[in-house]
Amino acid sequence: MCHLRRTSQKHNAHGPEVIKIHYPFHPLHGQNLRVERRAKLPKGEYIFCELPDGTIGGFPSWIADPTKSPNFTVGPPLTSAGALAELRKLLDRLHSNSQRGNASLKEMRREDTNATKENTGDGPDEPDVL
């Protein structure tokens, strides 16, 4: 959202246009704001409104469209904090094990490289290893 200082109030013959913020995750959700102007920008239509502090803020137009709001209800948490803590511990253990796995894989590669150097076929009947 962009903020501008209000320079002059715009009116039309029908009175000031007012929108309601319908997007549930916006801090101004549920508030009615007076429209200063609308603009079509490369990223879509924007509505510039007077904010509660007197500045002008720009919003994508969908934020004021009740049909574009997410279709879900807010309710109590479905997972306990304890279950989330257990999941965190599990993920930490898996990550730690994968780090150890990477380290031992690197060691195995080093050992393979050393073994290859030792068995490069220096004898007269053995071919060189490429």
What descriptors fit this protein?
single chain, 130 residues, 2 domains, 5 strands, elongated, disordered N terminus, disordered C terminus
Assembly state? single chain
Number of domains: 2
The helix/strand series, from N terminus to C terminus, equals EEEEEH
Query: So how many helices?
Result: 1
Topology:
Elements: E1 3-5, E2 18-20, E3 32-41, E4 44-50, E5 55-60, H1 81-118
Can you walk through the features of this model?
The chain has two domains: 3-68; 87-116. Helices cover 29% and strands 22% of the residues. The chain has one helix spanning 81-118; strands at 3-5, 18-20, 32-41, 44-50, 55-60. Strands 1-5-4-3-2 form a five-stranded antiparallel β-sheet, with no helix packed on it. The protein is elongated.
Gist?
The chain is α+β, with helices and mostly antiparallel strands and 130 residues long. 29% of the residues lie in helices and 22% in strands.
